[in-house]
Amino acid sequence: MIIELAKNYGFCFGVKRAIKKAEQIKDAATIGPLIHNNEEISRLQKKFNVKTLQNITDLTNEKKAIIRTHGITKQDLAELQKKNIEIFDATCPFVTKPQQLCEQMSKEGYEVVIFGDENHPEVKGVKSYVSTKAYVVLDKSELEDLKLPHKIAVVSQTTKKVEQFMELVNFLMLKVKEVRVFNTICDATFKNQAAITELSKKSDIIIIVGGKNSANTKQLFLIAKNYCEDSYLIETQDELEKSWFKDKKHCGISAGASTPDWIIKEVVDKIKAF
């Protein structure tokens, strides 16, 4: 059986930057999980004493706080700045951009459509910078029955599919007089999604490695499943089953943007052992 890694996969720029910061800072607390990968978070805690808090209210006697890659809300940031604690911002620059755009467009009188998952921490953070009205949607159908204003600005969660974003934009352009469109989908997301599309078309089994709570990892899995029925999403090598690979000729592997190389290597080695 051929084992082939996607042309683009794994750690993106923002995650690499956040991990490096956490390793250098040490003995700190992150507000929410730094990245969406439990294994890597566990490594940071054991090796660098970087612990994870769920909320700002969980802070006790910590001296250093790291803002997660997905960012936090504008209100939480203001609250954090009131505390006697050193703040290190590991928000991915690709996430900071839509925050800034939402703030600016609101000031100019635009209401804002955010293409993304309302419960995702990145989207919660971006939405908090809208001072007019924000519409968070995953599909254009959610806007069909609404009375929309004359001026709309559109941004996207960084890990969404560009084709779906374009559908939403086309719908708005036919319905709203003035639409300002900002393509805030991350370049790494484009490359990873294009690579898994190509790989899954020629594979008879696909393994996607990454956090099951990671939006970009789940997106890779859905794309793979579309072209290769036998596609599996796993977090670690322990979830691999030998029976999956029976009579398979070509195994494709990709990984989410928060998946470290050491986990991917363990997965590849175990598949080779099969």
Automatic annotation (TrEMBL):
A single MF term (Gene Ontology): metal ion binding
Active-site annotation: E122 (proton donor)
EC code(s) of this entry: 1.17.7.4
Keyword Iron: yes
Cofactor: [4Fe-4S] cluster
Top-level lineage group: Bacteria
Claim: Iron is one of the keywords in the record: yes
Position of the signal peptide: none
Keyword field: 4Fe-4S, Iron, Iron-sulfur, Isoprene biosynthesis, Metal-binding, Oxidoreductase
Root EC class: oxidoreductase
Binding site for isopentenyl diphosphate: H36, H70, H120, S214, N216, S258
Purpose: Catalyzes the conversion of 1-hydroxy-2-methyl-2-(E)-butenyl 4-diphosphate (HMBPP) into a mixture of isopentenyl diphosphate (IPP) and dimethylallyl diphosphate (DMAPP). Acts in the terminal step of the DOXP/MEP pathway for isoprenoid precursor biosynthesis.
Similarity remark: Belongs to the IspH family.
PANTHER family reported for this sequence: 4-HYDROXY-3-METHYLBUT-2-ENYL DIPHOSPHATE REDUCTASE
Protein name, entry field: 4-hydroxy-3-methylbut-2-enyl diphosphate reductase
Provenance organism: Campylobacter cuniculorum DSM 23162 = LMG 24588
